[in-house]
Specification:
Radius of gyration: 20 Å
Structural class: alpha/beta
Number of strands: 12
Order of helices and strands: HEHEEHEHEEHHHHHEEHHEEHEEH
Strand content: 15-25%
CATH architecture of the largest domain: Alpha-Beta Complex
Largest sheet: 6 strands, parallel
CATH superfamily of the largest domain: inorganic pyrophosphatase (n-terminal core)
Strand order of the largest sheet: 3-2-1-4-5-6
Shape: globular
CATH topology of the largest domain: inorganic pyrophosphatase (n-terminal core)
Length: 339
Amino acid sequence: MSNLDSKNWVHLTRTINEAEIILLSTHINPDGDGLGSEIAFYYYLIDLGKECRIINISDLPSNCKIIDPDKIIETYDILCDEWLESVELTIVFDIGDFKRIGVIGEKVRPNSKLVCIDHHPPKEDHPFDLNIIDMNAPATGYMLWKYFQHINYLEPKLSIKIANGLYASVVTDTGSFKYQSTTSDTHIMAAYLLECGVDGYDIQRSIYEQQPISQINLLGKVIRDLNFSKNGKVVWTIITQDMLLDANANDDDAGGFTEYLRMIENVEVSFMIRVNKNTHRINFRSSGNIIINDIAMSFGGGGHKFAAGARINDMKTEKILHNIAQLLNKKIPGEFNVN
């Protein structure tokens, strides 16, 4: 599904021109794509003279601080409410489900136009006035790059702060250009950003090579307790609060583990269940032969064909695992024993 045509970009431009107070946001537990996209667009809107703020429901992850040197990203608290109620336009990035910006959405929805720019399958009941989706795009930041092309904003060069945000976006969501969504145009985009002055090594090192010792401790516990299906095609882990406590870790430290497990030889699907009282977060990754976003959707989540997730309330871990096993057995017959 793709609708990156001039009609949508014209509509987006007109919507931006009609607003003066603009909020940018992304999903809970943000990644480099959502963060890089909102940072890049923030500086573009400031260049237009707009009053703009980035307010997210979750804190900025430490590995992405390199792309926010001016500390423009805010984390929501009630002191934001008065300003949020004055917002005329809200643009959210990398998020098909409006609910994933949390209470922020409740504050802006009565008075603000709502725009989504994303590359995930859209929710059918979305509230967006303008929903720009390209499921073939390697990253949301790539879509912004195409928009900047459309409005001739790429010449002479993007500012380094915009370029850094877009580079972090595309690096994150292509797995450093190794995922199947990576195209020749993705590399053209990256080359252009490097020409703008981006230091690709510094950004990738910050995102991927600065793991805190707490994360390494937690990874050690995960590796010791891995679960494999009969033929080793599925691997999974369950991370409990006790594991986090023992590793002196927090929930953010588990980021990237599902992708790491997917790289084990012969593995087709990996998934991770993170348990926090009555809430479970599930992340799925596929090597590219098995579609898994439909499994995430069965739990009320979503995502790409080969990378997806869900948040589940009030269901026991055993029931979640049982349901996943049943669904995966239809895709890889005989892999699980379902009791």
